[in-house]
Amino acid sequence: MNVKKGNQRLRKRFGDRVRVREEEDRIVVSGRLDSWEDIVEACSMCVCKKGNKHVVNDIVLEGRDPKPMRLPAERDSALEGERPDVLIIGGGISGASIARELTKWKLSVLLVEKEADLAVQASGRNDGEVHPGVDLKKGSLKQHYVLLGNRMYDRVCRELDVPFKRCGQYVGFRGWWNYPLVRLYAWNKKYVCGVKDTQVIGRKRLREKEPQMNPDFQFALYNESAGCVCPYGLTIAYGENAAANGAKISLNTAVLSMEVQDGRIRSVLTNRGRVWPRIVVNAAGTFAEDIAAMAQDRFYSIHPRRGTNSILDKQAAYLTGAIVSFKTVKKEQGHTKGGGILHTVDDNLLVGPNAVETYEKEDFSTEQASIDAVFQKQIQTVGKLSQRDIITYFTGVRAATFEEDFIIEKGRRTKNLIHCAGIQSPGLTTAPAVALYVEQLVVEELGQEREVEKNPRFNPIRKGIPRLRELPKEVRDRLIRENPDYGVIVCRCEEISKGEILDALHSLVPVATVDGIKKRLRPGMGRCQGGFCMPLVAKIISEEEHISLSEVRKAQKGSVITYGRTK
Amino acid sequence: MEAYEVIVIGGGPAGLAAALAAHKAGSRVLVIEREERLGGILKQCIHDGFGLVRFGEKLSGPEYAERFIDEVLELGIDVLTSSFVTELKKTGAGFLVSVVNRHGVTDYQAGALVLATGCRERTARQVLIHGTRPAGIFTAGTAQHFTNLLGQLPTRRCVILGSGDIGLIMARRLTLEGASVLGVYEAKPEPSGLTRNLVQCLEDFDIPLYLSHTVTRVFGEERLTAVEVAQVDERIKPVPGTEHIIECDGLILSVGLIPENEVAGQLGVPMDAAAKGPVCDNRFMTQVPGVFSCGNALHVNDLVDYVSESGEMAGRYAAAYAADGTDSGEHIAFKTDDSFLYLVPQQLRLEDRDKKGVLYFRSRNARRNAVFTMSINGKTAYTRKYGQLKPPEMERLEIDFGKYPIQKGDELRFEIKEVMG
């Protein structure tokens, strides 16, 4: 990069408070600023498109102390002295899919996740869209992997027994005068960028397919390969399949520090003991930069970006059967297409997300303003959209780099390390393809020491918990006769039986909490939001785990539901 | 396939009363209840005050339910518990009801259906509470389930949002269990619960009630640690600068009830947006002939006595429908204005214009010296004076339509008017 010009630009905008320097493998921006937005702006100004150096943010945010990473309360030596071939840090979609692909080899794989379940942060808090990649620039890693990943979804979801629907995506446009420009854009996407399913469809066909969309849309960009999946369902499925094939998954386990010697990670300290891995995969989401720093290989920075989604009652699901949004031709601000409306695999609607820069990596709180902003926008996509149909909402935090692209490569200074970082949208879509590439990197690296053999017992098939409500009557009847607990309905909104809950408690990555059950089966995700079933689910957990009701938790340690017997 | 003349869905107070009435009218009846025991939500309402209108006695919820359950069992009415209706379908002769329970999936045939599915509580998300997502946020009914059915204390120190009856009852209940109830916060300028509950549950226990206040935010990562409350303006928007933080480990919500009509939706039963239950005629039959609605599924009642009453009527008429199955389909739709929150039923069957009918309504606003008026073609026909009307208190009245010359095509209009002076 041209450091001199960069510093001139920074000086013009921020005076002498910030400056940039170039190092062998990174671009470092340093100084002091008192607003996070300014820091994001300063770092973004230093992004260099040529070469492969990433921006590292060393600017001090004055007057505010970002909260330290939330750590699990557990302190024990459960993992002390373990020597896995591969240590994967992070149990999101990236870590879980990488773990599963690595079990194809005779390698011991240990995945650590600091939260009480898999997919608690970004992978549990996104819209579940399987992107066609129509909005991505050619040449980016995102674009490369989105095309590969999208194509893999049918097979992966079949193997892992996860519901997946290719519902298609429509982006509406208002004025006819945009038509030539959009046609050109679509042609480019289809023939130059390789998004082969890109089409422009006319008003009449759009009305037939999506009758509730704004009648002012004159035409739409259509991609039939777009789909939707339950993002945490897929992550858990990957994790369970990895576990079935021999990977060890350790929840409530955070990496605290690393011992690095001569450019190699020697050992990794966790809250559950010190482990000695041959190689480490950094799939730590918003904390990937912190892990990179521990490994003395920090050559990129993460600037977290919040987004809030709302879930609407099934009664509103008729508003669209696909993924719909709209676009104006004038350039939009920010790094997201501004959200949309998505018909989920579970037949709810999801509306959002928005995008707000933040320095807090774990602030998942929601604000009414975010929801208002999204609805104000999306009501232009579908006029009948109403906040009255909201049953819940949630906030996720994206792990964006300043280059707004993924970092999937071997460590630059530290050898036995592989980064899978900067994974934001479309990271769910890309995960299956990225996992294959990381698998290749790991096997290559470990193969330099000694040959890595295939695991002949690898079984790619995972059998999920039967979804009784979706089965034909006769099959459901037969299953209930075999296991009468399948006939005891616990959650009335989503029709979940006691048998299914017991299956989840006995699964390969069991999480015996109310949220753990909710994520695996959906009791508490319906319109009553657990009002009726939560005490029943808590009771089943207490009976099955032989603990008292006051020991049953919502999620992590400390999240107790009751305080013991009444008088 | 087993066939019944009347199948009642829901074994709470409405369904039990419907089953008894249908049985006494000569029908073969089946009651389907999704929980393990009959009685519905009354099972967890261990406070008293039930049955004053019906029995002239102060009973607890379980005692009230027991009277009906005993009779159902004595009469040998068929009951399925722990049984969940997954599908309702119209067939040529009546209805197909698919039920899931420990024995499998079973289909039943019914001549008429009574939907007595009760109501559910509005959730924290439906009143747009923001902040983190810790444990410790309960609807009042869920807190009541933990306290009264599972014997577990859901909170030691809590704030209650909403002054609905269950919230008030829980304020007292939790206080008696040793928890501190720091206050009841109500966004509206008037309380939502019954006066007797305000007195017996709050005043008697020195629990403060803050009107025009709401909870604006919750805090805590694992368990709730605090809530932020603020004063609201007349549009229920928080007034900036009035926020303050209250440390607590529980937030109990009593912010309204919603009739549950998801099974009714499967039959395409048209709904009344105001009452949030099916549009019914004076026999409590919905606009799908042969399908009846009653209790809290029809509209949210304030007293269980009226739940039983509508259940009885629905059951009796369902039996009559199952016996002869005719439906002239001719109705006079009641016209109401916005002086009502709602009026139930919404129609009079033309053939019943010489009969007595029961009406339930709630006034939209609190009023003193109001007059309930029925006019026929613009001419006042029936009036009834009320010293006061309040939205939280449902009113019930009986009109003898036979007293008035009602003809096909007439306009029946209902209004609540103020009386001057």
Automatic annotation (TrEMBL), chain A:
Q: Which InterPro entries match?
A: BFD-like_2Fe2S-bd_dom, BFD-like_2Fe2S-bd_dom_sf, FAD-dep_OxRdtase, FAD/NAD-bd_sf, G3P_Oxidase/Oxidoreductase
Domain FAD dependent oxidoreductase: residue ranges = 85-440
Q: Which Pfam families match?
A: DAO (PF01266), Fer2_BFD (PF04324)
Q: Which residues form the BFD-like [2Fe-2S]-binding domain?
A: 489-543
Gene3D superfamilies associated with the record: BFD-like [2Fe-2S]-binding domain, D-Amino Acid Oxidase, subunit A, domain 2, FAD/NAD(P)-binding domain
Q: Which PANTHER family match?
A: GLYCEROL 3-PHOSPHATE OXIDASE, GLYCEROL-3-PHOSPHATE DEHYDROGENASE
Protein's recorded name:
NAD(P)/FAD-dependent oxidoreductase
Species this protein is from? Diplocloster agilis
- Source organism lineage? Bacteria, Bacillati, Bacillota, Clostridia, Lachnospirales
From TrEMBL, chain B:
Kindly list the residue ranges recorded as spanning the membrane. none
Q: Which UniProt keywords apply?
A: Oxidoreductase
Task: Enumerate the spans annotated as FAD/NAD(P)-binding domain.
Answer: 4-298
Look up the domain of life of the source. Answer: Bacteria
The record lists the organism as: Diplocloster agilis
Q: Which GO terms describe its molecular function?
A: oxidoreductase activity
Pfam families named in the record: Pyr_redox_2 (PF07992)
What is this protein identified as? NAD(P)/FAD-dependent oxidoreductase
User: In the record, what lineage is assigned to the organism producing the protein?
Assistant: Bacteria, Bacillati, Bacillota, Clostridia, Lachnospirales
Secretion signal, residue range per the UniProt entry: none
